Amino acid sequence: MFPARVTVTIIAPLLAAAPASALAQQVRFNLAEQPAVTGIPEFARQARIQIVSPAGLSGLKTRAVRGAFTVEEGLRRLLGGTDLYIAARNGNAISLAARPRVAMRAKNPPPVRRPIETSPKPESDTVSDIVVTGMVSPERRLDAGLAITIASLERIHELAPNNTADLLKLAPGIWAETTGGATGANVFVRGFPTTGDAPFLTVQLDSAPIFPPTELAFSENTTLFRVDDMIQRIEILRGGASTILSNGQSGAVINFIQRRGTPELRGGLRLTTTDYGARRADGWLSGPLDASTVFAVGGFYRISDGIRNTQFPADRGGQITANLTRRFDRGSLTAYVRYTRDRNAFYTGAPLIADGDGGFSAIPGFDPLRDTLIGSDTRRLSIETGPGAYRPVDLGEGRGLDLLVTGASLEWSPSDDVEVTDRLNITHGDANTIGLFTGPVPTMLGQYVADTVARANADPRVVLAAGRASSGQAVLAATGASVPTDRYVLTAGLWSVKKTIASVTNELRVSRAVGDGHRLTAGLYVSDYKSDDARQFGNNLLLLAEPNARRIDLTLDNGVRASRDGFVSATTSQITGYSRAANVALFLSDRWIISERTSINAGARIEHQSLRGAVRNAQANTDFDGDPRTLYDNNGALLLGSSTALEDESGQISWTAGVVHKALPDRLTLHARFNHGSNLQSFEKLRIGGRRGPPATVLEAGADLAAGPVRASVNVFVNRFSGLQFTRLLAQPDGTVGSIILLGGARAAGLELDADITPAQRWTVELRGTWQDGRYRGFGDNSGNRVVRQPNLQFAISPVYATRVAHADVKLRATYTFVGERFSDVENLQKLPRYSTTDAGVHVQLDNGLYADLVAQNLFNAFGLTEGNTRVLGAVLASGPIIARPLFGRNLSLSLGYRF
């Protein structure tokens, strides 16, 4: 991947491509004399072209270019006095080469391979080496001094992700639990403590957050985004200067860079199928509207039986995206629109047997790699929400998305020393959840009947109305067939979350060169967002612990009905309300180039948040039908007509300071950074009377190497939190859903490695790994415990063999992934054992534009747990029947595509 003669690709960030004829068009340039390592990227940015230059630019200086010139003439002026010359032109790309110097001629120069003459090869989805995420202005990755991972669309195809959060596995320092299905992940960053969702991850589209509050229950940011072939590349940033930019994320940012229009007609079509019945089509088309305007449009549609057998279509829906880019004198403007309508089944935990020694096995008849509890018997039911009030729900809706995202991006240089950028994003739609959520561990039906009899006999109202009970009769709710008492059963809540969200964000930046080596950037970030929620929890079903679980009805021998259509509880918790918030932030940053090799970056952000909302009051333990002999609705939560108003005004100051030193220009860059920031108050915390997000202080340092056959990034980090708050939902034995609040602090330290090594021609070894130690501090009895759900060690090794066969590029890839021990609970009583998986893929690209990707995930059907029984306290994973969420079994996907 990185031969002895390293080449660096420099791509202007505003346009994906430019026509060959554009080289003859005039562009107004403003470049001072400077080192070639910065002059050539800046020329590419202003000309909006791609330049491939040889390594070894250290010591070379490019000349000043000011005024209007054709791109080709301007480049010749820039390179005057150097040994560089234009060696080739191919569409939007210009290749530079260095004239050999006799005094430095090698005794045995390497042979020059003449490229095979073929018809022009269609554009491939390769990756740019310029990064824009968490940066005041775009910069080459090697020089940026960031812990950042870049992946092209081609690399995304090779990964074959099952959901958006799967892409985070490409970056070290991040742990993503993605076994809930096509959406609904839990994401953890660098030991930042949280119990679930993804509060320390922001998803951006073209550097604008799609929904600014990341602490949104049941709708973490990756749930709001679907990946398709309209994405050109992704950038995954940990830390960096993002604390003061955009929505001020102190954890991680994944930025999806859209495919932009091209000056010549191009397009692609990709068809995908899997061994579990998924069918998907992706397509895109781009081209010019006139000499200054280009367009891109595309999307996907899919339908799937599910990576677990659901007995109904698990995933169905699609997306369409379009954007227009208009170039004008000194700038460009891009506008986009993106509409998504998708429905995805949610996979809950599976029943297992723990052997007491850290091992796990399947409950008889249940395959934890392929089966799921949801099925046709539980799909369409009606939940009881009040006296005589029933609402139909459909598990086929799952974690659905009906979302419209629009926005615009402006890049403008009104004068030679000033740059202006503005990024606007508007989001509106529904992000609902209909899912089955497990609670207490499985038990034998006989024991469940005995417990129900004891509970009924302990209620004076029940005894007064029906007398005491001594036994009960259990039958299948759908057929009336008797159920033996030696079968394993469990209860699981049919939860419904209706959520409508809307947001408007805008970030304006103005950058200007000031004095000797300084570039000041001032910015204004504003956002206005809302969320309207109606959540019904409880609704517990009594189920057989089997694939596609069947509902059980239970009647006691005194005539008391313990269930209705399988429901052993009604809605026991209701949260209906709204929240509105507005944020305004000002930030100022200075990049000071001290010398050709060293620069300092420092900045601060001051932000104010105004949060308003209201929650309907609810009356707990309400007997919905007034009949104590119907146990299933004796403890309902009844919505009242009154509401409780909530409001909060808060502010914070965040800051960052970093240094970047090019120890060996073009080969080795050292960097260090100190950050301080936090998430502001969330409605979820405000609703339960909790504190706003805890402040995080982060120290990071690293080295980036690009030398010969090695390209590597090594980073260390130390995090400290104070005033940390956790909220956990707990499933109670009586069917109610409670919560607890935990307060304390945490610290974490870790090491990240992200490397590509080319040990021999055609061979590359990719290494990605994280070691971290995160522990709670000042957390009472939990002090010293490991931070919940994050492994202390995880790594992946991917040998890649790439070769040329006839008129095709062929790549073989295998990936071995190791995940260390984790704890599913703050108390460190639910240990999740280590596991490892193996993936493999074959990828072929023909010169005529055809390509194919065959990917096998979890090739050897490895067993591993990603989540324990998070809604139950105690050592419930130690022995006997348990609930936990396992990996998906082996699955195959095949994609066939064509690009022109």
Question: What does the model show?
Answer:
The chain is mainly beta. 7% of the residues lie in helices and 54% in strands. The chain has eight helices and 52 strands. The strands form eleven sheets. The protein has a 22-stranded antiparallel beta barrel. Strands 11-16-17-14-15 form a five-stranded mixed β-sheet.
Give a brief description.
The protein has 900 residues and is mainly beta. It is 7% helix and 54% strand.
Mean pLDDT figure: 88
Percent in helix: under 10%
From the alpha-carbon coordinates, what is the Rg to the nearest angstrom? 29 Å
Major β-sheet profile: 22 strands, antiparallel, barrel
**Which spans have pLDDT < 50 for at least 5 consecutive residues?**
1-21, 101-124
Q: How many DSSP H or I helices?
A: 8
- List how many beta strands DSSP finds: 52
Q: Strand percentage, roughly?
A: over 45%
N/C terminus separation: 25 Å
Structural class: mainly beta
Shape: elongated
